[in-house]
Amino acid sequence: MPILANQVGNDSIMEMLIWLLYSDLSPRAQDHINHSKILVELIERLMTWQRVLSWGAGTTYQRDSVENSSSILRYIIYPPVISVSGGIFIYMENTNSGLPLITTNAPTGYHNYLLRSLLKYLLGSDGIFQSLMDLGFAELCQEISRNSFDGIYEGGSLSVVMMLMSILGYRKVMCDITGIEVLLQDCYSVLVDSLIKRAGKFVSLCSSIIGVTVGEPDDNEEDIDPLHADILHHSGDRNSFSICNGNTSSPARSPLSMISHPHLFRSNGNALLTVVAFLKRCVFLQSSKVDQILANNNLMQYLLVCYEAHPNNSMLHHELTDVIRFVLLDPAQARLPTCPLLNSLFTQESSILDFVISSFNRHTQYKGHMTTIANSIMTLKRYVGC
Predict the structure, then answer these.
(1) What SS3 class is residue 270?
(2) Where is the domain boundary, 196, 227, 250?
(3) Exposure on the CB side of residue 259, measured as CA atoms within 13 A
(4) 120 plus 216 within the same structural domain
């Protein structure tokens, strides 16, 4: 198994491992998987190689290895579907195509056994969620500091955390979690504890990409290490990017006032999309502790600025609108009426109503998204009876 894991950068080895892992989902087979330590080898190599890549070193093969390791973990979290092409069975990502899952023929109750093995390993490894998030943060900082984004295709360690977050938040009702309910609850608790010290750093990274600072950062956030301490501060030079801790001497400005200063914004749209996608999953976790930290770090104000920072990036606008609609409507109805993120959208300094009206008046290219948000505000108004 260590030899196979070391060669996972080869696509044929990756495919063979996926078929092997799903070839037998019985409890006895899972014991063999645990004994072989293949999951341990894959995750340890993913973190080791991504650490090298985050230093700006590493080889193309190591990048391929990180991507393929992430793909294997993705197919464990989201079982692939099976198709037949030319008489050959192939697996592919499940996109609700109506094709049978690779676990369809598994004995009753066995379909989540492989995911259960992965969750048990993650829960039994001290600090693994913190390490995965820190490596993902370092990867983003490294790419942003070059003023270019050639990120790992499958996202690497941060994508592993994001995939887990997607089955721990409100969207888990769309998944079959039979037999792993308790493990998911434990995983949720550990992940939230890890996020409490790190969510603020990702909001600061978002603000640095767009070159804007609103208010002061939350003191609950973990200190940023010296390696990345200079990336979170925008020096004013469009071509310079240094990491900062969020403390600036400039007065706080509302998103509406920042929009009239387009020179503040940077061009790292892909990096910003990755950060916003991560923050979106943080919100979707529906943790009151994480929501409070995100609100204290002015997340919603930064998300509003992101529209104008990249007025032509429809993929980014879609992610931003998803977060805002979720905060406004909360499809799972698990949010408290005093949700700090919701309250932060209706302040005098940063009003979502003023933002939507201003966007329409300026004939922006994201008026369709503003219409969606306006409809959500009207739905919220009827819901709360105001």
Answers:
(1) helix
(2) 196
(3) 21
(4) no
Phi-psi group of 302: left, alpha or beta (phi > 0 → left; psi -120 to 50 → alpha; rest → beta): alpha
- Which residues contact residue 237 at a Cβ distance below 8 angstroms, ignoring those fewer than 6 apart? none
Per-residue pLDDT of the chain in tens (386 residues, 90 and over written 9)? 888 888 999 999 999 999 999 999 999 999 999 999 999 999 999 999 988 887 777 788 988 999 999 999 999 999 999 988 888 888 888 876 688 889 988 888 889 999 999 999 999 999 999 999 999 998 888 877 776 555 555 568 999 999 999 888 776 556 778 889 999 999 999 999 999 999 999 999 999 888 877 655 554 545 444 334 444 443 333 333 333 333 333 344 455 455 444 444 445 778 899 999 999 999 999 898 999 999 999 999 999 999 988 888 999 999 999 999 999 987 665 666 668 999 899 887 778 999 999 998 888 889 999 999 999 999 888 776 55
Return the DSSP state at 48.
H
How many folded domains does the chain comprise?
2
Print the domain residue range for 343: 199-384
